Amino acid sequence: MILDSKIPDGPLADKWTKYKFNLKLVNPANKRKYNIIVVGTGLAGSSAAASLAELGYNVQAFCFQDSPRRAHSIAAQGGINAAKNYPNDGDSVYRLFYDTVKGGDYRAREANVHRLAEVSVNIIDQCVAQGVPFAREYGGLLDNRSFGGSQVSRTFYARGQTGQQLLLGAYSALSRQIHTGKVKMHTREEMLDLVMIDGQAKGIVTRNLETGKIETHAAHAVLLCTGGYGNVFFLSTNAQGSNVTAAWRAHKHGALFANPCFTQIHPTCIPVSGDHQSKLTLMSESLRNDGRVWVPKAKGDNRQASAIPEDERDYFLERKYPSFGNLVPRDVASRNAKEQCDAGKGVGTSGLAVYLDFADAISRLGEDTVRARYGNLFDMYAQITGENPYKEPMRIYPAVHYTMGGLWVDYNLMTTIPGLYALGEANFSDHGANRLGASALMQGLADGYFVIPNTVGDYLATIGPKPVDAKHPAFAEAKAKVEEQTKKLLAIKGTKTVAEYHRELGHIMWEYCGMARNEAGLKKAQGLIQALRADFWKNVNVTGTNEELNQQLERAGRVADFLELGELMVVDALNRTESCGGHFREESQTEEGEALRNDNDFCYVAAWEYKGDNQPEVLHKEVLKFESVKLTQRSYK
Predict the structure, then answer these.
(1) What confidence tens digit (pLDDT) does each residue in 165-206 have?
(2) What pLDDT does 275 receive?
(3) Are 281 and 237 in contact (CB under 8 A)?
(4) Active site members
(5) Distance CA 376, CA 74 (A)
(6) Which residues pair with 496 in a beta bridge?
């Protein structure tokens, strides 16, 4: 298989503009002859469905929640990046592009990242026009704040609720199209397989989560906007329902999975408090604008934070990275927090936490100003921990948050299956080995509002508007396959719950394929996952029936896919013996303990091809070429 990224020729700044001109167009009168399926209704899915319907296409949108407004995009807190340069502090499209490539440790495509930076400025205009209530300065102008990996303020925000407000904007656009009849909304339906005809994506198989009814749906193109796979770790900041099933089932049909080991550990999360937890809670990176991260200088210092004098505190990020301080990228901040805790300087009863202290900010700005900026985040922290962050420092520790890996896509966002696209976090394309803060919302809306409306027409114009035959045998075969797996899960009648398997998988992944990885641990993890997966299919206990609301059955299918994905993540991490971004191989680090890349051997996208159950996947490489950015050892000192 030859990977053709379809990156256009010419100067970097001109690629997207010229490429759009050369794409084939669909006549306005012909658009209504095409049907498009959009799976997932977060920022990428809602914006794509609304934009495509506005153009005249017939859209079917699917989500497993009871409303598109419940997509996990709603949980994003801190902000969205855009190269507007409103503060006049030296920002530009090129600087956003450069910061993103560098932040991703030079493992992303230049062309895709530059396009993202270009359209970022349009996203803000679009959202303001929709009524998104971005924070404003006293004079009424849109306000900005800083995020990690940048020395400018380019992040637009709505207190700590930016994802919610952006999703409401996209949802309003989607609702308008639902009202006009151009979008047919399917809620409480989960995609369980892809329908292929003559090697092209032509539809999906879904299960109604309330009735268990399994149905097929036909379309000329299918867009997967289904988010990331962080829940493979069991404990993460993702919503409990977030899963890899749609992407993984497509992978089994031939869509390559790229860089699966590139997962992001967010440095500012409320620490684990016990085995009773089913998820973790994010504390926005925006807090590091004013909060200072520190630990006691002495090991095992169990005094209250207020009892530790200033000269006995180690503000380790400010000490090690004076140019960026507390706003280093997430992978750097997370590894340093782990390093301090491993050295015995962690705080709290578990010793697995560091302080995020706002005393200086409150003294400098006043409590009212801090409350105006971060009030809902402080309230959330207080409700969960029972501690007052205005009076004592927050305790934070890294947790799984985002996945940079995903389905491989070309410049058009099309996977290796013709007619199947992947948008937002579901694809791998824009963030390399580490995503900068406030860039997930940017990518989701860029793909949905400004990229896919241009690129999907090129494919549709090529295949023509002939209706897809919903009675083709491929639809019945795909439906029967889903029904068979459903029966298989219900028939096992073992002794262990789905949650037990998921928790055990998460422990393996966190222990051996988390913040730090090494060859021995990864090989051990592969064997453990294989054994766990074999036991799952012999001993899992899925109660209830298919013809009802059955969350055990839903989770069983998702965990089955996580058990396969987990092994691929380990294999990918074993193959990449360098360190880069969020992928830290202990065998490959600088004398100062920073990630040490190997550009000679690993400057490529690792795209994996499924070859059958329990068969090793085949690696394909897309070599990354850098023409505008010089490959250097990343430094934030």
Answers:
(1) 999 999 999 999 999 999 999 999 999 999 999 999 999 999
(2) 84
(3) yes
(4) 330
(5) 14
(6) 540
Q: How would you classify the pairing of strands 58-62 and 183-186?
A: parallel
- The whole-angstrom separation of Cα 175 and Cα 130 is 12
Q: How would you classify residue 402: left for phi > 0, otherwise alpha for psi between -120 and 50, otherwise beta?
A: beta
| Beta pairing partners, 155 | 81, 145
DSSP secondary structure, 49-92, as one string: HHHHHHHT-EEEEE-SSSSGGGSGGGG--S-EE----TT-SS--
Q: How far apart are CA 57 and CA 54, in angstroms?
A: 7
- Show Cβ contacts of residue 393 under 8 Å, excluding neighbours closer than 6 positions: 294, 305, 355, 356, 357, 358, 359
Q: Distance between CA atoms of 609 and 258, rounded to whole angstroms?
A: 9
Per-residue pLDDT of 542-560, as tens digits, reads: 999 999 999 999 999 999 9
**CA pair distance 149, 161, nearest whole angstrom:** 21
Q: One-letter amino acid identity for 474? A: A
Q: Give the confidence band of 2 by pLDDT, cuts at 50, 70, 90.
A: confident
Query: 17 Cβ partners below 8 Å, 6+ apart?
Result: none
Other CB atoms within 10 A of residue 276 CB:
5
Indicate if the alpha-carbon torsion angle 447, 451, 455, 460 is positive or negative.
positive
Residue matched to tokens 């989960």: 190
Residue with tokens 């191989």: 585
Residues 354, 395: Cα–Cα separation, whole Å: 6
Amino acid in the structure at residue 399:
A
Question: Can you say whether the dihedral through the CA atoms of 319, 320, 322, 328 is positive or negative?
Answer: negative
What's phi and psi for 400, nearest 5 deg?
Answer: -60, 135
Helix (H) or strand (E) holding 313: strand 313-314
Hey, which residues does 548 pair with through a beta bridge? none
Residue 269: phi, psi to the nearest 5? -130, 155
Structure tokens at 557: 């299918």
| CA 129/CA 157 separation, integer angstroms | 15
* 519-539 and 498-512 helices, crossing angle to 10°: 170
Task: Give the pLDDT confidence score for residue 495 in this predicted structure.
Answer: 98
Paired tokens of 62: 């699917």
Nearest-angstrom CA–CA distance, 626 and 606: 17
Q: Name the pTM for this structure.
A: 0.97
Number of residues that make up the chain: 637
CA 517 to each of CA 215, 261, 404, 502, 580: distance values in angstroms, whole numbers, following the listed order: 42, 10, 17, 21, 12
Residue type, 516: A
User: Phi-psi region for residue 614, left (φ > 0), alpha (ψ -120 to 50) or beta?
Assistant: left
Q: Is 218 helix (H, G, I), strand (E, B) or coil?
A: strand
Q: Is 614 exposed, middle or buried (0-12, 13-18, 19+ CB in 10 A)?
A: exposed
Rounded Cα–Cα distance for residues 114 and 626 (Å)? 12
Q: How confident is the model at residue 276 (pLDDT cuts 50, 70, 90)?
A: confident
DSSP string, 317-331: HHHH-TTTGGGS-HH
pLDDT-derived band at 92 (thresholds 50, 70, 90) equals very high
Determine the average pLDDT of the residues in 257-285. Answer: 94
Q: Which of 44, 221, 16, 223 is nearest to 119 (CA)?
A: 16
pLDDT (average), residues 213-224: 98
